[in-house]
């Protein structure tokens, strides 16, 4: 199975964790952990320019190639960013919301020293029509700064569910100030209910040592309010890795729950081979995916660890747990052999 999210593999064979035979999960082909934070729609905005001007574009959906196309024609009367030189270096950027993480951004070339740029470029998204119809198109115009201090020049947001798809003509639209809908709540992906427990080596007594090495138990209960990618809901499942190990032995998954944005999994995963000191350097990554025949779509995830940015002395980008995730992991470390319950929001990873 393949997944529509960036993948990175980090192996540290010396510290591999092996799922115990008591696990309820089946092994499948190893898929790397999802990595790389998705920046805000408005990342890098250093300007204080008021939005003005218009943008001309057209929308189309190519049924044969299953491709959404945004033909960006031109802009007129954009705001001037560099008033001393009387110039702007504009480009156009698009996102599909709310799941900008999955589809990513598209952008045109930069046109220098003009407030009336002409692009005539097509920005393309490979996406099923039924998925597209529950998205919004966010099209924004930016001034490009060589030092990365880009300035927001205006935007327009279109609800694709109500778009007239028979309209393939170029039309002019006024650029507006940034919308609150794109700033707030874009990354709400649902909430996972789970419990975790750490069983230290030999803590259960009996011959010879029970367990001979430590175990981490993860009880995935349910997820509420998943992103709905199609009218009938989503067919979701949860993947689990213990990073830094992204091998087959580390990979476990739940069954698929069909057509439900509030799936109940009630699935327990057990990893053995844990020593107490490993808890400082390991990270349990749980990700939720929408299952399709050809590809799986990333819906959101959590990472349970200390969030130090380091694993066994090596700097890693996946050791990025939020305050809530860190507190949850710390509580487990301090309460051996006890189930710790949590309710954690899913996020982009």
UniProtKB/TrEMBL annotation:
One of its GO terms (biological process) is exocytosis. Its main location: membrane. One of its GO terms (molecular function) is neurexin family protein binding. Residues 1-12 have a biased composition (Polar residues). Residues 1-29 are annotated as: Disordered. GO terms for cellular component: exocytic vesicle; plasma membrane. Residues 51-173, 188-319 form the C2 domain. It is found in: Cell membrane. SUPFAM superfamilies: C2 domain (Calcium/lipid-binding domain, CaLB) (SSF49562). It comes from the Eukaryota. InterPro entries: C2_dom, C2_domain_sf, SYTL1-5_C2B. Keywords: Cell membrane, Exocytosis, Membrane, Repeat. Signal peptide: none annotated. This is Synaptotagmin-like protein 2.
